Structures are given as structure tokens and as C-alpha cells.
């Protein structure tokens, strides 16, 4: 805003020497400095912990062990990342260490399956609730809606029991399926579907498109931007799952990175391998960031070209 | 091409009845316009014909075949929507081709039909565009094109011109008429605009509160409106409707505003029977015994519309050729021919 005001050619205004003009320019300049100052402060607050982690991941284990907090890179970056990726640390004594490569793969598969599963289930249930009239339609909708009020922790014991009974512990299915049902996504899709004009449904009826055809050819393409936005949110939700994987997974080959990271800290008497932990933390950061950057291009594009 | 027959169509939503038994016969290639104020049930009637609503009672026949239980897609019809309902994510070509693709028509045939229709409508250069890149008039044409490529037995139009600006509306109106004549497809057109109705229809159905008040050609409706509703609805400015009573012998009417006027033929009934006398503003002649207090003068260039009141407070509109005559606030007028005489109780023409 300030930039625009400052750069606008002031046609017809008084000459460059006009005191009022100079005063208003000075005010605009001051305002810009203030705004940028606040923004920079914000960036610092957010970036500093990540900077410390990034720098810490490039030193040897003893530097941080001594209690130093280095602010510039050391010389062990490549060794640390290779060790973390391949073995989960360099110390031979840590028998529970899981390679970061395995954990990242597990997390990526889990988060992708959760996000895709949640979107698939919720878009279909929202489609049913909005476009079909069947007995108990609103009752079903409210049943879905009410589960929003129950956080995972409340239903974790019955869910655990069900998963154990189905023999799904220590499996990717057990990790993903119980968290797939999503009231939030169903609600969001429902609200979006309500904005789709009835005329599209009627035009499709006259064109002879059945319900699934209409869903595939019209509703799904129109939901693209919503799906992209939800995928970002749900992928990060899946990536950050902690309590459920902690409960259900004992097999280290299925360890996810968020749980694995916490297990790397404070194991017995051994010294924490902070360099490996920080390298793993940086690695754990990358996939969600990649998803955000990738999908952002998509849904900003979708938001700017309105299609209705 | 086919005939359309609606018989005894009724529709109720819960306790409210919106259609009270509509009968309508449309001949092959005919264009019938359903016109009425909003809420009169005209759109519901169209939607029942399309199969988007099911009638509470009655049957719909297209080309002699009873289609009442059939889905819209199986009725061989095309509907042009008020807001066009073009799929926003498809190109113009895909929008027009979608119904044909679902019918598994060969790709070549689809291409041929779409291109033919696009050429006919002058939208051939737009086929690769999305609806949002089109103007209102172009979208309207695409919506028409989507209907044409189907080569249906029946065209249905649901107020397709009401989202266009006035100039474009007149232009599209003429275009639709030309196109319909050229293709010779039986058509049902719904509108609330009486000018649109008069210019488009071979016949009109004037609807009032779920009933067909009159079904006739535009000129017949204009010349002989069946009741006071039709008389007031068709024609602009609207017909003057004045309270009156039947004089002894039935050969004259006594106006509530004062004075007596002879009738073209005697009307039945006892002396003092309550009547409504209708006269169109352009048929009122200047000079006479009825004093009209002029309240508003609307000069329209080639003609002038005068609004005023008669003694007793009844409103009166007069249309005269050329500029407004000089007047001193009161203008003497007289009602001669043609007069429309209605029964005051039932509103029916006598």
C-alpha cells in the first residue's frame, strides 16, 4: 500500500520543492521502515530456532554436548546427514536407532495415505449428504458433525481395542485407517458443494449424466482447489501424528519420524547425539515444506481464477 | 419434432397447490410462450415438462408418447437455463458435446454436430474458450448451442433472456425466433416479460395463480382478453379498468366515475349488475364528457402518456400521438371503442 502511494506519479501536484509534498514523502518513508522492521523481527523470531537446528546439525557430537550453541556452520554436516540417514546416528551403542531414511519414508507414506484417504472418504460422504435426499440425511450429517467435538484422545482406547482385535497393530493399515474418517473435511466439502448451483445438477440430468458421472465430470474438477488446500492441511496433520503411531507401532521398521525423533532424545545413560537429532529434525522438516510449496502454486492459481 | 400434450397437470408442495390442472396442446413446430407474474407456477410447469419435477397428477406426452415416469435424459428434450448453467471448467466445445459424449455418440459425429451448431450461432471461433471468458450474449448462444446439438424433439426455455441487458435481449429475442423457425423444433418458452411473450410466441399461455387464464395467439389475447387479469397483464401501458354497472336493458354501462357509455352489443343480466369496463390507453379519445385530472405527463417522443384520475378517484392512463395537448390540469376524455366488458365478480369477459 505504502509502495503504491509513494510511487504513484503525482501529476498536476506542486513541484518537487513543495514542503507539503516533501513532508508526506518523509512520512511514507518512515512508515515503510517501521513496517519492514516489524516484519524482520517476526522473521527472526520464527527463523532463529530453525537456524540453530540447521547449524547444530553440522557440528560433531561433542560441541553441543559441551553445552555450546554455535551460530555458524561446523565441518561435519555431510558426515552427520549420512549417518542420520543411513543409521540414525553414529554411535554404535544405540541399538534402537532407526535410520532417518526409513522413518521419513514411513512418515511420507502414512501422511500421504491419511491425506488421500481423508479426502476420498469425506468428499464422497459430503457428496451423498448434499446431492441426495434419503431418509435420515440430516441425522447422518449431524452424526458426522458431532464427532468433530471428540478429540482423538477421547476415543483412543476403544479405537486401540478395535485395531488390536483386527490384528492391525504394527502395520501401515493400522496406522492409517483409524485416523481417516474426517468430520472437518466432510464439513468443508459440504459447505463448498452447497455453493454449486442446482442448475448444474439439472443440466447434468438432462445431459443424461448419472450421479457418479456427475461427480467425476463436474463436482470433482470444480473441487480441485479445495482438494489442494485440504491436502496441504491434512498431509501436515498426518505428518505430525504422534500419539497414535506411538501406541500402535512397536516394530522399528515402521517407526515414523516424529515419534522416532522424540525417542532419539534421552535414551538411557547414553549421551544424546544432538548432531544426528538435529540433522533428522531438518530432514523431517523438508517433506511438509515441499508439499506446501508445491500445492501452494496450485491453490493460489485456483483462487485467482474464479470459475463460478 | 413432435407435439407436446399436457393434460390435467397438478402440482402441490405440501399444503400449497401451485398448479391447478393445466391442459395444453402444442402442435409440431409451434412455439408457445408461458407468461405470468412471478409465483404463478410457470417455471414449475416447465420443470414438470422437462422431468425435473414430478407432477402430483396429470400426464406429459411428447410426440404421443407418455413420458411422465421418464427421467429428463430419456425425454429427448433440451432445456436452456436462465443462468445458462454452463459447466465452468469445460470449454465451449466440451459443454456442447457433454450430453452427446454421455450418449456414446461417435467422436466424428459429435464434432460435426457441435461445429455445425457453432457456425449456425456464430460462436465457432469461441469453441476452445471457457465460459468465464465469454460475454453474457455469447454464453447465451453457447447455452442455445448445447440445446441444438442434441437435436431434441422439444426445446424448453426457462427465462433465458432475463440475465441480458436490454439491447442484447431484443437482439437475442429475434435470434431465438429466427432459429426456432429455421429448425422447426416444437418449443415451450417461459418468461415474465409480456413484450418477449408477444413477440416470440405463436400462442401464449397467460398464467395466473396456477391456472391458465387464457391460451391464444398474441393478437387474440391483446384484442380479446379472457379476464381482467389478462387484460391488465398484456399491453403496455396497462389497460384502464373502470368500475361500472349495467344499465336497464343491458345496452349501456353507467360508469362509477360518472356518465353512461353505450355498449357494442347488449350484455345479459339485471340492471345494476356490477361490471368492469376496460379500455386501452391508446383507445381513449380526447374531448368528451369525462374530466381527467392529469397528474403526470410522460413524453416518449412520438407519443405521450398521461396519467391522471377520474372523478371518484379511479386511475386513468391515456396515450396520445405526438406532444401532450395543452391542458389546464383537467383534460376531457371519452371512451369509445373498443371496450372490454368484464363481470366484476368473476373477472370473466362478457
Helicity range of chain B = 10-25%
Q: Name the chain pair with the biggest interface and residue counts per chain.
A: A-B, 19 and 23 residues
* Percentage of β-strand residues of chain B: 25-35%
- Radius of gyration of chain B over all CA atoms, rounded: 24 Å
Task: Give the helix/strand class of chain B.
Answer: alpha+beta
Instruction: For the largest sheet of chain B, list the strands in their spatial order.
Output: 6-7-8-3-9-10
Determine the mean pLDDT of chain A: 82
Instruction: Characterize the biggest β-sheet of chain A.
Output: none
Supply the number of helical segments of chain A: 15
Report the top-level CATH class of the largest domain in chain B: Alpha Beta
* Category by helix and strand content of chain A: mainly alpha
The overall strand count of chain B is: 19
Molecular shape of chain B: elongated
Organism (chain A): Teichococcus oryzae
Subcellular location (chain A): Cell inner membrane; Cell membrane
Protein name (chain A): sn-glycerol-3-phosphate transport system permease protein UgpE
Main location (chain A): membrane
In words, what does this structure look like?
The complex is a heterodimer of chains A (308) and B (350). Chain A has 308 residues and is mainly alpha-helical. Chain A is 69% helix and 0% strand. Chain A has 15 helices and no strands. The radius of gyration of chain A is 26 Å and the shape is flat. Chain A starts with a helix and ends with a helix. The model of chain A is unreliable at 1-7 (pLDDT under 50). Chain B is of the alpha+beta class and 350 residues long. Chain B folds into 2 domains: 4-229, P-loop containing nucleotide triphosphate hydrolases (Rossmann fold, 3-Layer(aba) Sandwich), CATH 3.40.50.300; 237-343, Nucleic acid-binding proteins (OB fold (Dihydrolipoamide Acetyltransferase, E2P), Beta Barrel), CATH 2.40.50.140. Chain B has helices at residues 42-50, 92-102, 107-121, 136-149, 166-183, 194-200, 218-223, 228-233, and strands spanning 4-13, 16-26, 31-35, 57-62, 65-66, 77-80, 154-158, 186-191, 203-208, 211-216, 240-246, 252-255, 260-262, 274-279, 284-299, 303-309, 315-321, 330-335, 340-343. In chain B, strands 6-7-8-3-9-10 form a 6-stranded mixed beta sheet, with helices on both faces. Chain B has a 5-stranded antiparallel beta sheet with strand order 13-12-11-14-19. Chain B has a 4-stranded antiparallel beta sheet with strand order 2-1-4-5, with helices on one face. Chain B: Residues 4-234 form the ABC transporter domain. Chain B: Keywords: ATP-binding, Cell inner membrane, Cell membrane, Membrane, Nucleotide-binding, Sugar transport, Translocase, Transport.
Amino acid at each position: 500500500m505504502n509502495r503504491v502511494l509513494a510511487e504513484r506519479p503525482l501529476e498536476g501536484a506542486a513541484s518537487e520543492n513543495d514542503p507539503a509534498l516533501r513532508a508526506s514523502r518523509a512520512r511514507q518513508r518512515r512508515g515503510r521502515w517501521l513496517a519492514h522492521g516489524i516484519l524482520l523481527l517476526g522473521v527472526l523470531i520464527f527463523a532463529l530456532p530453525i537456524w540453530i537446528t540447521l547449524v547444530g546439525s553440522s557440528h560433531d557430537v561433542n560441541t553441543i554436548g559441551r553445552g555450546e550453541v554455535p551460530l555458524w556452520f561446523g565441518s561435519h554436516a555431510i558426515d552427520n546427514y549420512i549417518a542420520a540417514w543411513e543409521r540414525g546416528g553414529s554411535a554404535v551403542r544405540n541399538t534402537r536407532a532407526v535410520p532417518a531414511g526409513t522413518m521419513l519414508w514411513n512418515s511420507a507414506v502414512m501422511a500421504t495415505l491419511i491425506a488421500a484417504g481423508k479426502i476420498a472418504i469425506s468428499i464422497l460422504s459430503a457428496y451423498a449428504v448434499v446431492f441426495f435426499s434419503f431418509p435420515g440425511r440430516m441425522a447422518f450429517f449431524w452424526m458426522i458433525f458431532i464427532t468433530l467435538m471428540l478429540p482423538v484422545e477421547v476415543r483412543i482406547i476403544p479405537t486401540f481395542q478395535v485395531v488390536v482385535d483386527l490384528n492391525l497393530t504394527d502395520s501401515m493399515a493400522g496406522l492409517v485407517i483409524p485416523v481417516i474418517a474426517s468430520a472437518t473435511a466432510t464439513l468443508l466439502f459440504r459447505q463448498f458443494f452447497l455453493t454449486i448451483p442446482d442448475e448444474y445438477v439439472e443440466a447434468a440430468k438432462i445431459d443424461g449424466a448419472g450421479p457418479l458421472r456427475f461427480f467425476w465430470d463436474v463436482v470433482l474438477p470444480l473441487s480441485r482447489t479445495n482438494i489442494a488446500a485440504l491436502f496441504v492441511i491434512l498431509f501436515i496433520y498426518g505428518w505430525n501424528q504422534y500419539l497414535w503411531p506411538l501406541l500402535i507401532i512397536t516394530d522399528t521398521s515402521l517407526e515414523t519420524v516424529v515419534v522416532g525423533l522424540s525417542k532419539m532424545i534421552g535414551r538411557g545413560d547414553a549421551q544424546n547425539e544432538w548432531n544426528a537429532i538435529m540433522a533428522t529434525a531438518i530432514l523431517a522438516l523438508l517433506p511438509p515444506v515441499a508439499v506446501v510449496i508445491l500445492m501452494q502454486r496450485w491453490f493460489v492459481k485456483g483462487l485467482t481464477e474464479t470459475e463460478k | 419434432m413432435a407435439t407436446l400434450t399436457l393434460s390435467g397437470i397438478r402440482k402441490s408442495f405440501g399444503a400449497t397447490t401451485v398448479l391447478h390442472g393445466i391442459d395444453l396442446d402444442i402442435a409440431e413446430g409451434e412455439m408457445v410462450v408461458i407468461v405470468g407474474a412471478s409465483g404463478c407456477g410457470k417455471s414449475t410447469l416447465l420443470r414438470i415438462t422437462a422431468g425435473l419435477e414430478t407432477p402430483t397428477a396429470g400426464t406429459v406426452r411428447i410426440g404421443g408418447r407418455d413420458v411422465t415416469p421418464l427421467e429428463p435424459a430419456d425425454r429427448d428434450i433440451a432445456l436452456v437455463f436462465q443462468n445458462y448453467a454452463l459447466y465452468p471448467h469445460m470449454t465451449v466445445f466440451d459443454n456442447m458435446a457433454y450430453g452427446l459424449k454421455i450418449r456414446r455418440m461417435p467422436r466424428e459425429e459429435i464434432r460435426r454436430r457441435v461445429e455445425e451448431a457453432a457456425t449456425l450461432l456464430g460462436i465457432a471461433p469461441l469453441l476452445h474458450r471457457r465460459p468465464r471468458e465469454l460475454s453474457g450474449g455469447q454464453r447465451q448462444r453457447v447455452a442455445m448451442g448445447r440445446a441444438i446439438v442434441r437435436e431434441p424433439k422439444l426445446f424448453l426455455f426457462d427465462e433465458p433472456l432475463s440475465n441480458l441487458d436490454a439491447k442484447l435481449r431484443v437482439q437475442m429475442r429475434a435470434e431465438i425466433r429466427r432459429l426456432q423457425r429455421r429448425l422447426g423444433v416444437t418449443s415451450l418458452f417461459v418468461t415474465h416479460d409480456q413484450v418477449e411473450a408477444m413477440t416470440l410466441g405463436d400462442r401464449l399461455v397467460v398464467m395466473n395463480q396456477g391456472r391458465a387464464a387464457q391460451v391464444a395467439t398474441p393478437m387474440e389475447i391483446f384484442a380479446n382478453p379472457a379476464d381482467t387479469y389478462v387484460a391488465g397483464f398484456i399491453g403496455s401501458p396497462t389497460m384502464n379498468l373502470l368500475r361500472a354497472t349495467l344499465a336497464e336493458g343491458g345496452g349501456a354501462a353507467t360508469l362509477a366515475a360518472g356518465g353512461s357509455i353505450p355498449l357494442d352489443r347488449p350484455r345479459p343480466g339485471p340492471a345494476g349488475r356490477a361490471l368492469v369496463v376496460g379500455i386501452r390507453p391508446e383507445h381513449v379519445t380526447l374531448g368528451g364528457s369525462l374530466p381527467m385530472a392529469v397528474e403526470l405527463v410522460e413524453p416518449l417522443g412520438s407519443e405521450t402518456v398521461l396519467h391522471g384520475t377520474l372523478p371518484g378517484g379511479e386511475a386513468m392512463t391515456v396515450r396520445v400521438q405526438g406532444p401532450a395537448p395543452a391542458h389546464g390540469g383537467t383534460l376531457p376524455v371519452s371512451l369509445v371503442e373498443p371496450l372490454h366488458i368484464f363481470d366484476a365478480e368473476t373477472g370473466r369477459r362478457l
